[in-house]
Amino acid sequence: MPRPSWAACSSAPGLNGWYDSRVTRRRAIAAAVLSAVTAATAAQAPFWESKPPAQWTREEIESIFTLSPWGATALNSASPVFLASASPMRDAELQLRTRGAAEGQAEARADEDDYFTYISQNPGKRIVVATRVANLTAFSESRELKQMEKECYIRVGGRKKIFPMGHFPPTPSDPYLRILFPRLPLEGVHTLHVLLYVPGNPRPFAEAEFKVKDLVYRGKLEY
After folding, report:
1. What is the largest CA-CA distance in the chain?
2. I want to staple 214 with a disulfide (CB 3.0 to 4.6 A). Which of 68, 69, 177, 191 is the partner?
3. Residue 19 — pLDDT band, cuts 50, 70, 90?
4. Do residue 29 and residue 55 come from a single domain?
5. 1 in a domain, yes or no?
6. d(CA 134, CA 132)
7. Are residues 32 and 137 in the same domain?
8. For residue 107, what pLDDT is reported?
9. What pLDDT score does 110 carry?
10. Element (H, E) at 64
11. Domain for residue 98, yes or no?
């Protein structure tokens, strides 16, 4: 008996309709799966992407300094180290200042104005790395300041080191050291490796790494 050809099978009554219905069902299932994956991805988006800064909770704002692409706890210290020049960190600090002013803390935070005026007038011109300082009196010791200037750097890629241009010292109302580095393009760079010498901290050396591919905020590379 001769075997039926594929053409004969495909022209058999009802076969094309059966095939089309299977394709339609498969496409419907694929669309449903894609929709579910998209919804799950959106549900898992970090708060700094899913909400405007004004809607960030206090806990979320505090967490961005240690649990985000721009902020982490130092590898060999309990101090947070963060890229203060990145937009999400500036947004977080602005929220803290705004809410502090609403709670009557404006006078107590007035000595922060020099830094925030500088950073608002020079966006995208510096990399600013910040960390908390335990003992502010150490910044009155010239020996400590000289060591800080020598020991702080950002290593880009392999061995290239970027040294600081200056710093804003910590104050009683803003106990963060903010170190200014030259800004450089990060094309082809995978990691920013930060090493700081922080006068006044029990463990003065603070080390942190930031993955460049993760430093994206609202579709833009931020550092």
Report:
1. 102
2. 69
3. very low
4. no
5. no
6. 7
7. no
8. 52
9. 56
10. helix 58-64
11. yes
The answer on pLDDT for 14 being more than 90 is no
Structure tokens, 166: 């200056």
pTM of the model: 0.77
Q: How many angstroms separate the CA atoms of 132 and 151, rounded?
A: 17
Claim to verify: residue 74 and residue 113 sit in the same structural domain: yes
Alpha-carbon dihedral of residues 109, 115, 120, 126, nearest 10 degrees?
A: -150
Check whether residue 36 and residue 89 sit in a common domain. no
Kindly state whether residue 20 falls inside one of the protein's structural domains: yes
Is residue 181 within 8 Å of 162, Cβ to Cβ? yes
Helix (H, G, I), strand (E, B) or coil at 223: coil
Q: Is 64 exposed, middle or buried (0-12, 13-18, 19+ CB in 10 A)?
A: buried
Q: In 119-204, at which residue ranges do the beta strands (DSSP E only) sit?
A: 126-132, 153-156, 160-162, 166-168, 176-182, 191-197
Q: How many other CB atoms are found less than 10 A from the CB of residue 158?
A: 6
